[in-house]
Amino acid sequence: MLEVGTEMRYDLYDLFLEKAEPLASRDRRLTVDERIDRDGNVLRPMDEAELRGAARALAGMGVEAIAVCFINSYANAVHERRAHEILAEACPAVPVTISTLVAPEIREYERACTAAANAYVMPLMRRYVTDLREKLADLGLTAPLNVMLSGGGIAALRVARQAPILLIESGPAAGAIAGAHYARITDTPSIIASDMGGTTAKMCLIEDGEPEHATTFEAGRVKRFAHGSGIPLKVPVIDLIEIGAGGGSIARLDAMGLMKVGPQSAGSEPGPVCYARGGTLPTVTDADLWLGYLSPDFFLGGEMSLDADPVREAMDRTLSRPAGLDTTAAAAGVHAIVNNTMAAAARRHIAEKGRDPRRYALVATGGAGPVHAYGLAGLLGIRRIVCPLGAGVTSSLGFLIAAPATDRAHSHVSRVESVSADTVNAFYDAMAKDATRALVEAGGDAATITIGRRVEMRYVGQGFEIEVPVPNGVLGPDLGTVLHERFLERYDEQFGRRITGVEVETVTWRLTASGPTPNVGLNFEGQRVDTGAAEKGERKVHFPETGFAPCRVYNRYGLAAGTTFRGPAVVEERESTVVAGPDTTLSVDAYLNLIIDIDESRTD
Known about the structure:
- The protein is α+β, with helices and mostly antiparallel strands.
- Among the domains are: 26-126, no CATH class; 406-514, no CATH class.
- The model has no long low-confidence stretch (mean pLDDT 90).
């Protein structure tokens, strides 16, 4: 099963297509005789003697962890639970993952991949967690230690030991949670949270102060950023798009002589050419320095100097002379290409959801995010940009303001007209109790926990589903009728049509439990970070409208709440630099966010 996968090709025309290697080699994938049907009935009991033989064989191989996945176990996990007991007895020092613990959902291939990935990282995560707790104790820190989940919630440390795969995207999730925080405090209902760092840019749509979520994630892609080329995981995640565009993305000419930027990256070692650490290929950061967006003397707040001299040589050698351009045109091309790469990905992601990017504001974070936000916003037709103070480390804020939250799922396929309200009520009661226990363990208060419910549905015969909200409270006999109508509404919203006369079925019932979001917004109100001069001087900065022209440079820490000024402007802080063109008005709000409003007359 792990070898065959879904038989889908992520590139139809690549004759030498490579697939992601399964995490367990073929000689370490063993079978056991058992069978449960799709309704959860035991057709053949599990052969426990065969399982014990498999355990001895795996122990002889010296495996560090074991994953168990039986077909249709999502309908009845009795065999997986019994297998866990037997393996724990036979291999007491080896951690065991059963698929229904981490992904109790239909589709055995994805469920098996998730179980294997969880087992793969479990030994390392357990050592890491133990080491972290010991070091914190040595420092005298005895407060409870929680972890961030990929879905954006805070959970107890036990989750990191038992189901570490649920943390796979916890860092980017924290950035999205921070973006949602700025959506709330700026009273902006629709936001694109954009985090651009050294190697990648990530974006997330925020609606009504909440990031959007997904139930699948792909890891270990053979072809970077090619959907379908990795290992599918059934884990709740914040719905992010990832683009190979960052400060370290390398610029080059392809075989056709066309300029390309990324996804290859110089990283931090050796890094961009201007770091003077051995890098020889020009990057986005090198182009930004040449165009005047970055100060050679105030990078990382002055802790690191950038050298512009080797940038010209690298640009001319690899881009300018082969393409017949001057250095500035090549640098401007690099900057424009990386902006267009991000804009194209954002447009596609937003269009798939049936929305218009022009009704969003942009929250720019990450070290390179505020440098490119002005250009990105113009390409998307966005008129307002929010640049938080300390944008380069905003993701860390997401960890501090995230609410305790967790997700549960139960797959049960049923025609919508036959769905039993009593059965569904029992599913949700069990999931709610389990989720509440987990949140209380993470420090939540049971009295403040809110529950959200939804179900994945599809037309009978379709391969994939869409999510439909499920009413709160006790569900009654009209459940099937209510869900059918809601499904038609969501399908029409997403695909622009209703299909009548085709049967509809429910597939997976989902529940999200969450505590209140900590309110830390007032901690920034009215503060002035630095009493020094707001204006640092002037330097020549390149904009497409003007070419190189004088531009005022500001000290971010000298800008008090209520300050307003016109662009063009460069605003410098330790973690990042904000760039605003000549058609902008900049202002500082009560939380020291730098708000950039682009004139309505601008055309791109």
